[in-house]
Amino acid sequence: MGDESIIRKVVVPNRQGLHARPANLFVKVALQYQSQVEITRDGLKVSGKSILDVMTLAAEQGTELTIIVTGPDAETAANALVDVVNRFVEEDDEENGA
Amino acid sequence: MRVFQGIAVSAGVAIAKAMVVDDQQPRVTRRFISRANVDAELKRLANAMDLVAEQIQTSQDEVATELGDQYGAIFSAHLQMVRDEKLNESLIDSIRYRHYTAEYAVSQSFARYIQFFERVPNPFLRERAGDFRDIEQRLLNVLFGADAKRKLAAKQPSIVIAHDLTPSEMANLDRVNIRGIVTEVGGPGSHSAIVAEALELPAVVGVGAHLREIQTDTTLIIDGHQGRVIVQPDEETIARYEKEVEQQRQTKIRLRGLRDLPAVTTDGENINLMANIEFPHEADACIEQGASGVGLYRTEFLYLGQDSEPTEEDHYQVYSKVIRDMQGSPIVIRTLDLGADKIFGDEHPPEQNPFLGLRSIRLSLRNTDQFRRQLRAILRASVLGDVSVMFPLVSTLHELRQAKMLLSDLMEDLEEQSIAFNRDLKVGIMVEVPSSVVMLDRFAQEIDFISIGTNDLVQYTLAVDRNNPDVATLYNSCDPSVLRLIQMAVDSAQKGNIDVTLCGQMGGNPVYTMLLIGMGLRSLSVTPSAIPEIKQICRTVSAQKCRELATRVRDMDNAWEIKRLLRENLRQLFPDEG
Asked: Which residues of chain B does A28 touch, with a Cβ-Cβ cutoff of 8 Å?
């Protein structure tokens, strides 16, 4: 379609890694956009709109992920997705508060 | 007598009969259908998926109502899994092209995921296999027409023994007779562990494959402190643990007994303990924990996950529910505290630096239609109880004046329309930007109260994004600069004769309680579940001792040393509880 891909690198910030609940948050955001969303980790590429795919990345805290967004709303989608990854930390807020 | 060692995930002790739960998973055989039946089989699958989605939704609602939304969140993830495009494609392909039965397609597709997760090295992520087993079991139960809910019901006080328990089973647990949970697999992060803790049910997980050796109705002791399971204990052991069960009961009664007691120091200083809430149903928890009011009512949930902005009526309905439920106690409603990206999504151009960007009061003052709707609802609700309004992230006097002007415009409108409101509605600001602390003597002349929001105050003072792992260690609530700002805010508020509350996470952390009292704070707003513990500290210390501690801290310049001193003081307060 001639749309350029937006590529963003993120690091999984939360202690428990990219498990079911964070994966759910990520996919929910991804599904709001028209653009195609893919995530790669060490050469493995999965769909960012499938929770099962995202979970099979088995990404622990500190894992670097590359988010590739292609489509008409790629820029906004990429920003929102980076934002949601950074918010995973809120899951273990209790300990951070101390 | 035999003792099994596992991982302690939920504290407490119980003595009861074993109830061994077998895995009743139906066996799936490799079966095929004829070409003519493909469409019917696809239909059967689609119906099962719908039914399971409905069941999961029900579980989510039940668990969220009972324990709070964070516990229901796992079912939201399960729902997403059932609706997953890839999963559905693979199931449909298996039926359409390979002529598998729906059952066989399900078991084949899920087996791939379960095997994958069983081999993941990270123990927490490995437990996700359990999520897949849970959904698979629901689907197979529906397809086989079996009873979907494996309700763990017991006729006598029992301790459940199982290989593993799924989130759905935990949700359907018999709350009366089940006294403890023991599983062969699992770890501290598993959903069962989290739910057991929320239910205050002793639990030991990861005991290993020994549980088949235990018979139903054998006497068991579960020790959720040590992670121990004692099978057929001798009399001496039973006697020892019976004493502990009794102590546990006493402590529970004591903490519950605190509910109706005032939070007052040994030298007679009253501490006002209020609660922070986000969802309307949390008002019940406030009452239950003995909160003297709602010191921070966050209203963001009205905006999140909605397709359109909330109407004035949406606001009014939830506010009046909370006001009713709080039975006359004071309630501080904070206006919208979100970034522009969360509200407008696509329509809002991305910001370089959203935390310093268009958010909270700045956003409200820009998007006045929305702001008016919220303020009008607050004004209308103000006649129903003791309501105040609070503006978040105010950084200049100009912002406060603009917001107040809008408020008085709305009061005039309401008056013209003869709609009731409280003309003396108290107005306050959330103090979370250093500029507002510096200018607080001026702010104090124009407001009735402040509430110190420590989470953002720390972030803006130290210029640290605590969600950024590279700098998160710089985020420290007891950094001396933060403590000085809090002290300045408390002093200015007292001088200006306005009320001051602290509502950040710092207030709910027992480590800081003595220091905050010593710094002059007499009002804290904390998460409801933290109230009994904070109250107990208030009732054990003297304000004099707290002041001495604050004086010592004032002379220190290292955050870690301050924290160490605070921890030490807390330990000295409760020497028995180590």
From this structure: 80
